[in-house]
Amino acid sequence: MSWAIQGKTPWVIAHRGASAYAPENTLAAFRKAYHLGADAVELDVHLTADQVPVVIHDADLKRTTGKAGKVNRMLLKEVKKLDAGSHFGVEFAGEAIPTLDEVIEEIGQKVLFDIELKDLFNPFSKLPEVVARVVQRHHVEDRILFSSFNPIFLTRVKALLPDVMVGLLILPGWYAAWSKSGFLDYQTWDMLIPHYKDILLERVLAQHKIGRKLSAYTVNSKEEVISLLDVGIDGIITNDPILVTGLRRTDDSTRMARAGERAVSG
Ligand code: G3P
Ligand code: CA
Q: Measured from the CB, is residue 203 less than 6 Å from ligand 1?
């Protein structure tokens, strides 16, 4: 399995793991995503004070662990003592914040990864370089998509790993302006990842015409999934992989029929 070869369309990408069923960005959520049939897991990485990439969405620890403080001010051994499971449910008490190494070691051969580079507002961060080294050490370059709202991080990672896929995350409502500016035309981006409300048929068709994939975040309702299937989206980032795997299966023939209708009507 590799990002370069698409199996079923769209890819089902479990947002922070199967975060509808288990605490986000934990091994429990990533295992669940795999068992529910997700093609890929999306996860967020920050660096600890001792420069170890750990999987957590916020720069601050409070929301998911109850502990006040910043990830980048704490050593890995301190981060490892925190409980990132109880906020979701008592049955997940003691679930730790995983390192990126631990996640790749456990499920690196089972699913694809969308590794989102956080630390967005720190231009001195070594996050792209440190994470690229982890990926190289595990020899999983073809299973990784790097994504970020920070385009400079993506160009830095691509300079180190030229064959790895990179996906530019686009903030809600920014697609039109970035498109007009020509910024989206840079060949660095293998994939564009807009907010789902910014996905339009003409945008999908235009990107496909130049051989580029389009995924949408973060999609958690049946209606939204169906409208994205209808315009031929390549990947759907969701908290609930079952929602998309179910519709993707049942919708295949309908979609083909609709695509045929579109072709006939010009
Ligand atoms: O990858 C898409 C999505 O995860 C970006 O938003 O805030 O959930 O990291 P956020
Ligand atoms: Ca994310």
A: no
